[in-house]
C-alpha cells in the first residue's frame, strides 16, 4: 500500500529528547516500511526515517530559536503540500488531532486520524460532531470517555521496536521518574514515595516554559532532600540504562493520561511500573505481572517492595506480545485495508448538512 504518515511539526520524528506523538509516528512509519509498504512521512526537516521524507518545515518548531514563528501557518503549509499530493496515496494517516478536517472532506474515506491527546476539553465535542464522517482511532479505551459518540473505529495501543530498549534481568537499587515536570505528572508524589521507601529517586524530566514556575516553586525545593537526583531531560540513547537499572518506574499521574508511552518503555527494559489508577493505566499495566496499579502513596510504598517478586523476563515478554512496533503497525494495516475496501462510502454534502441543522 501507498501510505502517507502526517506528523506534527513541533518535534523531529523521532524527537531528539522529549516527545511522545512524534516518537510513536517514527516507530509506526519504520515498522510499516519493514512490513513492505511504500510509506511517505510528512514531518519537519531533521527527521530520521526509513520512509520517504517530505520536509514540511525547515526544522522542528521546538528546535527553532526564532523569537517569532507561527505554529498554525507551518501546519497549514503542511496541509497545502499534502493536499496536492493526496491522490498518490491509498491512505492518509494523520496525527495532528483535527486540524485537517476542513480540507480533506471529499476524501475522508481514505483518511485515518489517530487522536493522541486528551479529549475532556471544551469545543471538541462540537467539532467531532460536525466532522463525524472521519474515522478515528483512540490510543486507549479510556481516552474515548469524553466523546463516546465520536466515529471511533478501533483502539490501537502504542508500540516500540523490540531493539530500541535493552532488557535488564536484574533490578537496580533506585526508583525512576521519566517524562515531564508538570502538576499533572505529580513528581512531588514520586519524591514523597521514594523518601518513604528509603530508596533513591532519579528524575529524568523536561521542564517546559509553561511549567517553569511550578518547577521553581514546588519541585526545586524538594530536590535538596537526601536521595533525590534531578538529571534533566534525556534522549533515547540514555533510556535503556536509566530505566533498565531501576527497581521500578514511578508513574504517579493525576490526569486522564491517554496512554503513557514511558510505561511501555520501562516494560521493554523488563522494569516494572508502579502507576496510579488513572487514565489508561489499567489498560497498559497488568497488575501483579508488569507492575502494580495503586491508589495511594501508602500502596506505592508497599509496591516498591513487592516489585522485587515480579519476573522481569515476563515483563519483557508482555511488552513484545502487546506493545511492539510490529504489532502496532499490523493493527493499523488491518484498518487501512478496511478503509480502502469500502465501496459504500458517499462523500458528505457538508453545506447541505449545515443548512439542515440551521433550519
From TrEMBL:
Residues 174-306 form the Glycosyl transferase family domain. GO terms for molecular function: transferase activity. Residues 18-134 form the Glycosyltransferase subfamily 4-like N-terminal domain. It comes from the Bacteria. Keywords: Transferase. Gene3D superfamilies: Glycogen Phosphorylase B. Pfam families: Glyco_transf_4, Glycos_transf_1. This is Glycosyl transferase. The lineage of its organism: Bacteria, Pseudomonadati, Pseudomonadota, Gammaproteobacteria, Pseudomonadales.
Amino acid at each position: 500500500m501507498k501510505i502517507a504518515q502526517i506528523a506534527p511539526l513541533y518535534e523531529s520524528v523521532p524527537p531528539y529528547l522529549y516527545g511522545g506523538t512524534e516518537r510513536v509516528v517514527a516507530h509506526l512509519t519504520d515498522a510499516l516500511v519493514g512490513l513492505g509498504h511504500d510509506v511517505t512521512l510528512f514531518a519537519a526537516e531533521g527527521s530520521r526515517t526509513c520512509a520517504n521524507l517530505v520536509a514540511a518545515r525547515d526544522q522542528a518548531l521546538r528546535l527553532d530559536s526564532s523569537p517569532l514563528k507561527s505554529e498554525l501557518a507551518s501546519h497549514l503549509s503542511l496541509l497545502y503540500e499534502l493536499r496536492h499530493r493526496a491522490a498518490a496515496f491509498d491512505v492518509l494517516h494523520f496525527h495532528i488531532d483535527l486540524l485537517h478536517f476542513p480540507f480533506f472532506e471529499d476524501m475522508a474515506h481514505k483518511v485515518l486520524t489517530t487522536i493522541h491527546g486528551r479529549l475532556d476539553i471544551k469545543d471538541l465535542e462540537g467539532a467531532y460532531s460536525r466532522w463525524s464522517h472521519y474515522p478515528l482511532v483512540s490510543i486507549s479505551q479510556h481516552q474515548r470517555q469524553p466523546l463516546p459518540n465520536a466515529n471511533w473505529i478501533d483502539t490501537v495501543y502504542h508500540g516500540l521496536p523490540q531493539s530500541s530498549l535493552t532488557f535488564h534481568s536484574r533490578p537496580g537499587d533506585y526508583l525512576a521518574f521519566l517524562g515531564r515536570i508538570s502538576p499533572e505528572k505529580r513528581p512531588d508524589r514520586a519524591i514523597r514515595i521514594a523518601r518513604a521507601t528509603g530508596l533513591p529517586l532519579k528524575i529524568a524530566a523536561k521542564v517546559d516554559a509553561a511549567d517553569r514556575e511550578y518547577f521553581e516553586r514546588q519541585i526545586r525545593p524538594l530536590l535538596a532532600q537526601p536521595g533525590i537526583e534531578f538529571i534533566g531531560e534525556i534522549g533515547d540513547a540514555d533510556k535503556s540504562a536509566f530505566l533498565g537499572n531501576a527497581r521500578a518506574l514511578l508513574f504517579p499521574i493525576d490526569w486522564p493520561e491517554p496512554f503513557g508511552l514511558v510505561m511501555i518503555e520501562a516494560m521493554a527494559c523488563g522494569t516494572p511500573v508502579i502507576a496510579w489508577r488513572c487514565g489508561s493505566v489499567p489498560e497498559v499495566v497488568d497488575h501483579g505481572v508488569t507492575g502494580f496499579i495503586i491508589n495511594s502513596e501508602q500502596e506505592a510504598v508497599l509496591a516498591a517492595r513487592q516489585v522485587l517478586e515480579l519476573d522481569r523476563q515476563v515483563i519483557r515478554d508482555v511488552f513484545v506480545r502487546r506493545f511492539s512496533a510490529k504489532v502496532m503497525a499490523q493493527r493499523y494495516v488491518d484498518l487501512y485495508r478496511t478503509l480502502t475496501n469500502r465501496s459504500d462510502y458517499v462523500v458528505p454534502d457538508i453545506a447541505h448538512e449545515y443548512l439542515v441543522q440551521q433550519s
